Amino acid sequence: MNGVIQAPTIEYGTLAPMLLVFGAAVIGVLVEAFAPRYLRRAIHVPLTLLSLLGAFALVLIQVVKGDVPTTASAMGAVAVDGPALFIWGVILVLSFVCVLMINDEGHFVASAAAVPGSAEEEEAESAGSEHTEVYPLVLFAVGGMLLFPASHDLLTMFVALEVMSLPLYLLCGLARRRRLLSQEASMKYFLLGAFSSAFFLYGTAMIYGFAGTVSLPGINRALGTGALLDPLLLIGFAMLGVGLLFKIGAAPFQAWKPDVYQGAPTPITALMASGTLVAAVGALLRVFWVGLGNLDWNWRPIMWAVAALTMIVGAILAITQTDIKRMLAYSSIAHAGFLLIGVMATFDVSEQNSGSLSAILFYLLVYSLTTVGAFAVVTMVRDPGGEAGHLSRWAGLGKRSPLLAGIFAFFLLAFAGIPLTSGFFGKYAVFAAALASGSEAGDSLGGWMTGLVVVGVIASAIAAFFYVRVIVLMFFSEPAADGPTIAVPSTGTVAVIAVSLLITVGVGLFPQPMLDLANQAASGLFIR
Amino acid sequence: MTAHYLVLSGLLFAIGAMGVLIRRNAIVVFMCVELMLNACNLAFVTFARQHGNLEGQIIAFFVMVVAAAEVVVGLAIIVTIFRTRRSASVDDANLLKY
Hints:
The complex is a heterodimer of chains A (528) and B (98). With 528 residues, chain A is mainly alpha-helical. Chain A has one domain (12-523). In chain A, 74% of the residues lie in helices and 1% in strands. Chain A has a three-stranded antiparallel beta sheet with strand order 2-1-3. In chain A, β1 and β2 (386-387) form a beta hairpin. The radius of gyration of chain A is 22 Å and the shape is globular. With 98 residues, chain B is mostly helical. Chain B has one domain (2-85): Helix Hairpins (Orthogonal Bundle). Chain B contains three helices and no strands. Chain B has helices at residues 2-22, 26-51, 55-85. In chain B, α2 packs antiparallel against α3. The longest helix of chain B has 31 residues, at 55-85. The A-B interface holds A 112-113, 115-116, 155, 158-159, 162, 166, 169-170, 173, 179-181, 183-188, 190-191, 194-195, 198-199, 201-202, 204-206, 208-209, 212-214, 258-259, 262-263, 320-322 and B 6, 9, 13, 16-17, 20, 26, 29-30, 33, 36-37, 39-40, 43-44, 46-47, 50-51, 53, 55-56, 59, 62-63, 66, 69-70, 73-74, 76-78, 80-81, 83-85, 90, 93-98.
């Protein structure tokens, strides 16, 4: 503090994928400001796709060269370690395919400022105007998703959380059809999201009060020396947990998920259901492993209850749903619960427990790609007024379009975790890791972990019921005379479905390469 | 001495959280969220003083920027929904349920 400010060192090479995405987003904003209207789309689409592709290539180069850093970058603000690189790769693939879907005609409103049903709206629609701002907004959201699981202190994590969420709040409100639902989803997501991030921030403040620092390893060091029952620490940890569990959609913080998933434009739902979940699970792992690693006996029972509740709430409420997107939202809640089993297993007594970390990374990869594929199918089944959301409209789809219904049925089976699909190996890996960590930990804890896995298996069985119900509805009931039409898919949508189908089948038949990749990513563990 | 400020920050946070839960106007709900963020700022600055480092004060600046960005996005959403429904009540937006 003698007035001399040292220039910070920033490892541009390590951070390049993230910087590329943010840079492209800023250029996208400039395009909005300066390019003529008729050119914007022609500039945005290649810019967005190439930047995501380039970022993915940079991640690959980093992995192939094997120079995964062992210390935090950017003065300890960002940690680009094995798990972070794996998560980056997954998020970049997901966002690339989501942008292909976003690129389709007819998902986004012509003019968000025009009141639904007004003359202005009609005018904007007939003039063929469109909101090309969608592309930079998506890039900012993806940038936030990349930073969120890689942030090494709680301040960076908070900023990343907001950079990820704010564009998504806006994107939720931009659906072309059923605009009232879309705007309502946007408002609900915004108010609840802002509420939960205030909790995250107050938790950060309390932990800062306890530790005198917000850097995750610093907090862990303070835990090693300080009193572990300090009220500041307990309050802080609980509030931080609320903020993170909200983003994952774990019960009892799951209420926003079905509403937002139903109301948002389907490509954005796909991005949220896959990318946001992956990023948030990554951040949760990092906070609880790196930051609160010395506190695990404190949060274990709470996390146990949250995981069990999330699985049961997700699986049971999904049965009662009549809207396909809402059903997928509850299924996503149930899967968040399965992921939390993995999170429980990860923080075991032995810090070298990389097996469960790799299980959770593998699960994230397979689940998120299947999700994107399922939502891509949802965009194709249409009524005159937009997508055919109500489940009764899906009756007899298998007779009308066997190929599409077959693909969707396959995705549902993958969600249910039927063997020969990627979902089976994902679930198997997580459950096996939980059992292994339980037996390693000894009697009482082992019993708890076994109990959680039993809850998980029961929840999977309940979930399988409603997945199969949709399949039965599609194949064994008569199609209605005025049933939905199957939109002729654009090249982008075909590519999305093909990619996720390929991964779902491929990993289901030959899981070993992906498991090896996840093992390799997890072997370095998080930078501490 | 810092304890007083912490109590104040806790009170502000609680008032904000209660406001979010019981108020019905989206603008007021949103203002209550901002109040919660300001309570966080007060806690950060207090702890910075207590620990004798500057980290907390710097964080307060970041929080202000984030809060400003949140206002931009939030007001846009609330104004849109008000123009559509002629009401900013969070109870009126009730199409998405079950």
